Amino acid sequence: RENAKMVFSSTASLALFLLLPCLSHAATDFINCKDPCAGGDVNLILTATVQTFPLKIGNTSYTYRGRTYASSPEYGIMGPTIYTEPGDSIHIKLVNNLTEPIGPAPPTAAEYWNMLQNPGEHIKYQRYKKRVPSPAHLKVDEDNMPRHFDHTNLHLHGLDVQVHMFDPVDTHDPTAPHINIPPGQCYCYKLDIPSDHPVGMYWYHPHLHGSAAIQMWSGMLGLLYVGKLTLEKELQKYNVRNTHEFVIWDPAFQYVPNQPTHDLEVDEFLSGQTTLSKIHPFLVNGQINPTFTTKVGQVLHFHALCATVENENTFIVYPEGKQHLHWNDDQAKIVPFYQIGSDGVMYSKPIKRNVIVMSGGQREELLLIFDKPGRYVISQQGIQGMQFFGMRGHPHDQILATIVVTEELNDDDKKKEEVVRPTVPIPSMTFTPGYTDEESVQPENIQSSETITFSMGANFDQIPFPQYYINGHSFSSSRSQFHAQPNEAREYVLINANHNAHPFHMHVNRFQIKEMGSELSREEYPVLNELLDFDENIWRDTVMVPPNGRARIWVQFKNYTGKTVIHCHFLAHEDTGMMATLFIGKKDWIFQLEEHYQWMMGVGIGICLSCLVMYVSRCCLGRQRNLLKKNNMNDEDDDVLYSAVSLNELKSKAMD
Questions:
Q1: What whole-number distance in Å separates Cα of residue 18 and Cα of residue 12?
Q2: CA distance 229 to 520
Q3: Is the pTM of this model over 0.70?
């Protein structure tokens, strides 16, 4: 009986170990699409769908059809703007209605192989390794292949909220899977914005590994404001009222002439990832070169978002017709402007700029003022060659927008309209900062330093190609690559090992930049001077790590814990491997056990086998003892049988 109890106990322990994955993955925030996701201060239904939009690029008019959050074409390509306040709870029901087939399809091994035979551009790394003879010989990193183009999820970029990349929201399971919402299914995001959250502009976009780039090229993005009225009231006290959004987006399109409903779609992934798409413009607010108007002496305010997928860009203001000149040329007469906030965090005072370099994910609050009437242009230029292995023409120079400046009102007109000039000069304006000076990270508070290296592989026998790594690893959602504790300060040294731009983004936490540098020549790439011109007191959630360069950042982790990510915000890089998990805080005990699941299962099996051996051994020993006891009893009977008394008795019986 004792032996049976031992075997039963060991078997039960082994069964518990085997059930650990089921116990850890039981929770989810998927909901029935008929059920509500309400109860927050802000409640929203966000629907991913396929829509058709008119789109004019240059002098050509197209009908574009693609994936979007927009509820109707009349509202433009972007999704609805979300307005929240510090302290709000926000509940978003994300409905995936991407049920209609729409191009492109995920790239196959054969398509990768064909591209590698004739890349179409002179790329330095194409000589590093010989090509394989056929697609069948390619090694495939399945976890990092572009895929699931009609599956989706949601990331609220820059917000200080619960981790929300893995299922369920706020998960503490290091092996939790990506939130992956198939067509026809729904998910409920419930998030809490802290009461001390900085006021400013944020944004949202899909972030499912493997499909984020295609969906962003499609136009699946939208704006989110925290405390927008608070910010605009601060500006209005200085008579700054001419406010506009300025959203830069770099879609990758292809012409599809044989479709009955449209003639423009998102281009193939392999074309978009190397900016080889034939229709690859920079759009502002969904338009080519939109026009903004202001008056002499009036302040023009932009909420600027760089929502580019695979490009960085500059923001330079020229008098129209002068944009062909270098910005440092005195004849260019560029117009300076002012930054008053970055990545959703306001400064206490404006910073004067002539040029800024923006990368995917970054936001800027900008003030412009003109002292002469006329036409001006905002130009993207000077990035060519620096961004991608010296390839000239990528990204191409382009006018982003036009500004028409009219004469200041005369005295009679001023009686009819309010005065347009600011109450004080822009340099004299002050604002409520998103973070105080006392909240800056101090050197003595840094608890550890860690290196994060972005690198590329050029193996022609492996896809996806090229390969993208963080610290030598392509992405795996089950690998806990980086760890931190809530409320601690840490230093990260970001290394870019290639002549390729990589914007670094950290989810749900901000940082301050303490150092930047690059081995590239500033004479050959003068825009580097502008990229490396940083203010170490500014808080960001995204920073461009210069090509062949570095950035040193100090992170002040908040009190949010759980599983999240860091990654390159060129989303085609992220989709194909340049992302890593970051686990903040202590893991729940069941997940700590699961981390050692294989070891524990081995021990459990070993215990069970040991108990089984002990049980069999004891049974055998018991049986042997019984046989020995029986033999001893037989020996005793023989002794009695052949004793002298017994023999005499037998003789007597025989004589009788």
A1: 10
A2: 43
A3: yes
